[in-house]
Design goal:
This protein has 499 residues and is mostly helical. It contains 22 helices and 2 strands. A two-stranded antiparallel ribbon has the order 1-2. Helix 1 crosses helix 2, helix 4 crosses helix 11 and helix 5 packs parallel to helix 7. The termini are far apart.
Length: 499
Amino acid sequence: METNEKKGFKMPSSFVILFLIIAVMAVLTWVIPAGKYDVDKAGNLIAGTYKQVASNPQGIWDVLMAPIHGMLGKGDTGGSIEVAFFILMVGGFLGVVNETGALDAGIASTVRKYKGKEKMLIPVLMFLFALGGSTYGMAEETMAFYPLIVPVMMAVGFDAVVGTAIILLGSQLGCLASTVNPFATGVASNIAGVSLADGIGLRLLIFAMVVVLGVAYVWRYASKVEKDPKASIVYGLETPERHAMELEASDGDVRTLTKKQSHVLMVFALTFVIMIMSLIPWGTWTNFFSNSVKGLTNAPAIGTILGKDLLPFGEWYFPEITMLFLFMAVLVGFIYGISEERFIDVFLHGAADLLSVALIVAVARGIQVIMNDGQITATVLYWGEQSLGGLSKPVFIVLTYIFYLPLSFLIPSTSGLAGATMGIMAPLGEFNGVARSLVITAYQSANGLLNLISPTSAIVMGGLSLSNVPIEKWWKFVMPLIGAVVVGTVIVLVLGTMI
């Protein structure tokens, strides 16, 4: 049956975009001259040593094999198998935690605790959501909270925008200021060849800045709506009957936080504390952890029981933190009393939820495989060195931030964007005297900004749909805050070049 309905343009998936980039890069290996840089003892490229070499154009077979080599590694291009496996274990861990209902019950318990003083929920909940975004990339998980928080905010005299902002702004401002988010900071750090904890101090500063800005902005708007309902951006789209109906519906879903769930939340928080502690390079300031582990492993009985390969905090990387999430998933299952069969089921489902992210990392790394095998990476870096080499460090980092804004729209996947670009941008920053960790901070700040407003983001569109806030109304509400966040982030990035 024929239809006259016209299909609108639909943005291709991250997989399609990244594979097209691989193909384009393969074509460019036939056009761009091949070249290489000398490297130092640490394996870093030495600026000013570029020279042309014989070309090595890539063909169809190379394009098809690029994602495979991107996962397993080839030649000088490391594989992403460690990162991909880590992501799957994080997914399994989150699957087990979600099975306990501890996160949902924790938020519901917080909402109930502040009943009668709901305005105080704005800073409390926004900080909690931001913490989730900054540490484990909280995104889709927020969908469960809209039916609970939005009706509460509406019923006490605010509007749907306030409830939406608490969840959407809270979580995504946290992602913007990722500290140890494995899907943004973790993937980018691995590709850039630096520790996940490198630059964490500056990211914590950005985290504090954007959360304070966000809370102040939402609080100010909520106060205006509280005094005058007509000040609401969605005034006329809501009715008192809807407020009462939604609140009544949400009351039935509020869950009490049990003792077991409290223990799960403690383990959940402890997991990320241990991860952060393990990745900080403590050896720069103290030998406490290394000496403590050395003493334990050298002890006759204890050393044998613990294992001679035990690593101290400061020397952990993806294999060790992968083990951490796997162990903590088992611990959560034990604490909550999840049966073995159910544990395996929810763990595998949690890992499956992040399988696409793990595969995106491999496909994105395939771009670097093609460029390295075709020996055009050094040439592209040389062009960048020539065109940007005269720029000051502050100008370079600002241009990097601007560069990532449109790219974040083109490649909405944080992992995919890191894989597609960090192999070039990190060493280019180093050529200009900008730390690789600062380039990573610029990338995730720009990418996180787009995740607040992008119509191609499932997080944005899903949240707005659940709260019945039209996207044009959301844009009108959030744009002044976006401007403040951009200015604040650029200032911090520029300060980062002076440290």
